[in-house]
Amino acid sequence: MDDRTGQRIVPETARRPENRYGNRPTMKDVAARAGVGLKTVSRVVNGEPGVTPDTERRVQEAIDALGFRRNDSARVLRKGRTASIGLVLEDLADPFYGPLSRAVEEVARAHGALLINGSSAEDPDREQELVLALCARRVDGLVVIPAGDDHRYLEPEIKAGVATVFVDRPAGKIDADVVLSDSYGGARDGVTHLISHGHRRIGFIGDMPRIHTAVERLRGYRAAMEDAGIPVEDAWMSLGVTDPVRVRRAAEEMLTGPSPVTAIFAGNNRVTVTVVRVLAEQSRRIALVGFDDFELADLLQPGVTVVAQDAATLGRTAADRLFRQLDGTLIAPERIELPTRLITRGSGELPPSD
Amino acid sequence: MDDRTGQRIVPETARRPENRYGNRPTMKDVAARAGVGLKTVSRVVNGEPGVTPDTERRVQEAIDALGFRRNDSARVLRKGRTASIGLVLEDLADPFYGPLSRAVEEVARAHGALLINGSSAEDPDREQELVLALCARRVDGLVVIPAGDDHRYLEPEIKAGVATVFVDRPAGKIDADVVLSDSYGGARDGVTHLISHGHRRIGFIGDMPRIHTAVERLRGYRAAMEDAGIPVEDAWMSLGVTDPVRVRRAAEEMLTGPSPVTAIFAGNNRVTVTVVRVLAEQSRRIALVGFDDFELADLLQPGVTVVAQDAATLGRTAADRLFRQLDGTLIAPERIELPTRLITRGSGELPPSD
């Protein structure tokens, strides 16, 4: 995980021997299994009249048995329906997803497709409900920022040809394309930066422990501390919801405990903006590095040093892969990890206050 | 437009004599016109087999003639399909829409419905394409932040029972529910505030002149100046795209012209954040009031005085009305205008620098 000189492409181990899209059942397969003609299958699939209830049932049974799902761009274009892709976010109000969504939308538009968004509100059940609702509405592909950690519910859709790319966090329990930032390396860089400015008592405030990026960033924090030979105290680490009340309490406890921190590493932009508020109220100067850049970070006093992700490139890369899946030029799922970038602006270069 | 003591509800003049939803054609109407039974209409509408091509054509002609569209929540629930509503934004990356989207989503969720978003990217054609694509995907209702100024294309959908509420900006050329902020009054308040602190040469930088809110806010600026007996110079007013390059040039021209401004009123949050940057580079102190609150405005030096809209209440009010349309308890379109709130933080209370 050390050579972060640029974008890395790591082929995922294929758990299924067959090509993910190559074995997609066709209408011909359905017709053969049901013992009917292709036109009959077409009528049933497209909801056209002229099929007896008995025949329809036989076709439907074959469709279910084979996992057939009508879905190909050519058909869509023939029917005059607008192609569309879905984007499942975790929070519509998190500014991190703004540039990511817009980048996905721009790629979709370049391919003549509409983008439809929805939010899981960080709820795995809601994510599944939304993903399946989008599939039922015949999106051609999905870009998913997953809330859950088990995506086996998506396998029938993927097998049936719905292109799928995960972004920001990996898929759980299925092979799927994933595009993410190097959370581990970025956090390690940010904490190492604080250590290089003389800090030893450094706090970490992150998102909920079931979220992949939160765990990876905590791992990066621990690695930087271990590299520097600094034992980490439990009181310096806090994972949980990113609402201002929880983050404020976590920051205040670290700042006032028996072994108070002189610097804080904030695990994402939602955490950082609350920590900025808390630090503005302190009498001593506390150093801060935040994961994620945010608007106006450079105009605060001091400017906020951040580990920046490139949200637009995450979105664009994911969407590009989606359309490459759809046009058949991408076969095996891969994991693409984008590097982060440390931007120094003042808050991360403050010396320890004691 | 003067009595802004709270939320105002103004019944829109009904241009059509009939109730917007009361005359919605039913399957019975279609059956009568086509001379077939109700079951046959149901088969055609639901794409079920057992109808001859000739009969199907007759039913389809009746559907087209009457403008019938199957769409009612009861049917949706019977079929087990998840109810959904669509939200059409103008820019996925504008933070103003974050709390608005989340509020719409929360109301949708409380009604057991999914929210599907899309962005028009401020393009009227794109708006229409997206709206119709969402209708084709059987959303039960639409919350629209319009990019265009002619929404007659929506009339067949509305007649067919798609609930529709416009938010932030009114619909064009149709009667429809609209929920918006008092842009005129808010801008007038903000500019009056600058005048009360001694400013007479005040600049206005707003969004594109075809956008309703931009025009209303400019009107508020002009009214405040006229109330104070201050003649407005053309060089003090600039409308256009809100990208940083255009806004920066506009601000710099006002600050260096023959009659340089001592204060700027920024027409929305996208404009404000660029003006904040420009003002931070000036040698003299320029006062600033911005329309829209934004994150960290209070932590800048000086804090940024704003005319705040309540984006969450805009979204919640619009979504509430949408579901009241769907459950039949709302009949006539109304225009609801929410008051704005001046929040003083320092930048708007600076005296003129000359």
What tags apply to this protein structure?
homodimer; 354 residues; alpha/beta; 7-stranded mixed beta sheet; 6-stranded mixed beta sheet; 12 helices; HTH_LacI (chains A, B); Lambda_DNA-bd_dom_sf (chains A, B); DNA-binding (chains A, B); transcription regulation (chains A, B); transcription (chains A, B)
Secondary structure layout:
The structure is a homodimer of 354-residue chains.
Chain A: E1 8-11, H1 27-34, H2 38-45, H3 53-66, H4 73-79, E2 84-89, H5 97-110, E3 114-119, H6 124-136, E4 141-144, H7 155-159, E5 163-167, E6 177-181, H8 183-196, E7 202-206, H9 212-227, E8 237-239, H10 244-256, E9 263-266, H11 269-280, E10 287-291, E11 305-308, H12 311-326, E12 334-338, E13 341-343
Parallel strand pairs in A: 2-3, 2-4, 4-5, 5-6, 6-12, 7-8, 7-9, 9-10, 10-11
Antiparallel strand pairs in A: 1-12, 11-13
Helix pairs in contact in A: 1-2, 1-3, 5-12, 8-9, 10-11
Structure description:
The structure is a homodimer of 354-residue chains. With 354 residues, chain A is an alpha/beta fold. Chain A contains 12 helices and 13 strands. The first copy, chain A, has helices at residues 27-34, 38-45, 53-66, 73-79, 97-110, 124-136, 155-159, 183-196, 212-227, 244-256, 269-280, 311-326; strands at residues 8-11, 84-89, 114-119, 141-144, 163-167, 177-181, 202-206, 237-239, 263-266, 287-291, 305-308, 334-338, 341-343. In chain A, the strands form 2 sheets. Chain A has a 7-stranded mixed β-sheet with strand order 1-12-6-5-4-2-3, with helices on both faces. Chain A has a 6-stranded mixed β-sheet with strand order 8-7-9-10-11-13, sandwiched between helices. In chain A, strand 4 (141-144), helix 7 (155-159) and strand 5 (163-167) form a beta-alpha-beta unit. Chain A starts with 7 loop residues before the first strand and ends in an 11-residue tail after the last strand. Mean pLDDT of chain A is 87; it is low at 1-5, 11-22 and 71-80. Chains A and B meet through helix 5, strand 3, helix 6 and helix 11 of A and helix 5, strand 3, helix 6 and helix 11 of B. Chains A, B: Keywords: DNA-binding, Transcription, Transcription regulation. Chains A, B: Pfam families: LacI (PF00356), Peripla_BP_3 (PF13377).
